[in-house]
Automatic annotation (TrEMBL), chain A:
GO terms for molecular function: histidine phosphotransfer kinase activity; protein histidine kinase binding. Histidine-containing phosphotransfer domain (HPt) contains an active histidine that mediates the phosphotransfer. Residues 1-36 form the signal peptide. This is Histidine-containing phosphotransfer protein. The keyword ATP-binding does not apply. One of its GO terms (biological process) is cytokinin-activated signaling pathway. InterPro entries: AHP1-5/YPD1, HPT_dom_sf, Sig_transdc_His_kin_Hpt_dom. Residues 60-155 form the HPt domain.
TrEMBL record, chain B:
The keyword Transmembrane does not apply. InterPro entries: CheY-like_superfamily, Sig_transdc_resp-reg_receiver, ST_Response_Regulator. Signal peptide: none annotated. This is Response regulatory domain-containing protein. It comes from the Eukaryota.
Length: 172, 132
């Protein structure tokens, strides 16, 4: 540990000032509103996707696409796990709930609003031990998952054509 | 309670991200970089505890609740029993009050829902500033 010649109260005071400087600069920072207009209006995405867009910058110009690609790569495994678990008899609802929870968490992290809602339906069926309900709602989850993937592929294709960052007004 | 031992002049505010979700680790790392924080990410509670045992220290820990090997509540209890009094913020996607309560009682300073946003980080900073 690095020894300091300053008294402890000075160290604490300077750390406090450092935190307030960070807060102030964040408040003053100009942010350009960005939005995946159409996808948000259709309910596919929520505010979290905007947060991802706002994290994108010149140093990480493909951050959103990187995260979404990571999501589709990792979530394919979770989808497969759930599919396999649904083939078992009897169904292990705790395992299904756990797997879906992981999938839902990842989907939330990219702002997949509609998909998250479908996952919630599945979780409700798990909680009530409704096997047929789980199978039915899982088909909806897969449908929504595929639909969002197509939409996002179109979005990134469009983004590449118009430039690194799409500036648009947020939908009201 | 923030340990004064963690304070090091001239060094960036350091954050340990503890989460088994690779996507969450990437997003949170990026978000913290925007605040000019230095961050390190590990996959589970045991890796977090091992880091502290090895002598590493962080100003803030973002601890996921559900992880394999060692989950958030266990890792938090372990760190507190080691005398680690850095700020530990629980980060969970489970919204149930009782689960959050149990996690908080393990030794958290705060518990927030993931994924984190700029607003959440800003609120946390305001709370941290009050502690000094």
């Amino acid at each position: 540990m690095k020894a300091s010649l300053k008294p402890p109260y000075m160290i604490a005071l300077m750390r406090k000032l450092e935190i307030w400087v960070i807060l102030l600069s964040t408040f003053l920072m100009e942010t350009a509103p960005t939005a995946a207009n159409s996808l948000m209006r259709q309910g596919y995405l929520d505010e979290q996707f905007i947060q991802l867009e706002e994290l994108q910058d010149a140093e990480n110009p493909n951050f959103v696409e990187e995260v979404v690609t990571m999501y589709y790569r990792d979530s394919a495994r979770l989808i497969q796990n759930i599919e396999q678990a649904l083939e078992k008899n009897p169904l292990d609802f705790a395992k299904l709930d756990n797997n879906m929870h992981q999938f839902m968490g990842s989907s939330s992290s990219i702002g997949a609003k509609k998909l998250k809602n479908e996952c919630t339906q599945f979780n409700e069926c798990c909680k009530t031990g409704n096997g047929e309900g789980c199978k039915r709602t899982f088909q909806q989850v897969k449908k929504e998952y595929a639909a969002l993937k197509k939409k996002l592929e179109q979005y990134f294709q469009f983004s590449r054509q118009i430039g690194p960052v799409e500036k648009a007004c947020r939908p009201k | 309670m923030m340990s004064k031992n963690n304070l090091a002049l001239g060094q960036k505010f350091s954050v340990l991200i503890v989460d088994d979700d690779k996507i969450i680790r990437r997003i949170h790392k990026m978000l913290l970089t925007k605040f000019e924080f230095e961050s390190h990410a590990v996959e589970n509670g045991k890796e977090a505890v091992d880091l502290y045992i090895s002598g590493k220290n962080f100003d803030l820990i973002l601890m996921d609740m559900e992880m394999a090997v060692m989950d958030g509540p266990k890792a938090t209890r372990e760190l507190r029993s080691m005398g680690i009094n850095n700020v530990i913020v629980g980060v969970t996607s489970r919204g149930s009050t009782s689960e959050k309560q149990a996690f908080t009682e393990a030794g958290l300073d705060y518990c927030v829902e993931k994924p984190l946003s700029s607003e959440t980080i800003t609120s946390l900073l305001k709370e941290l500033a009050k502690k000094y």
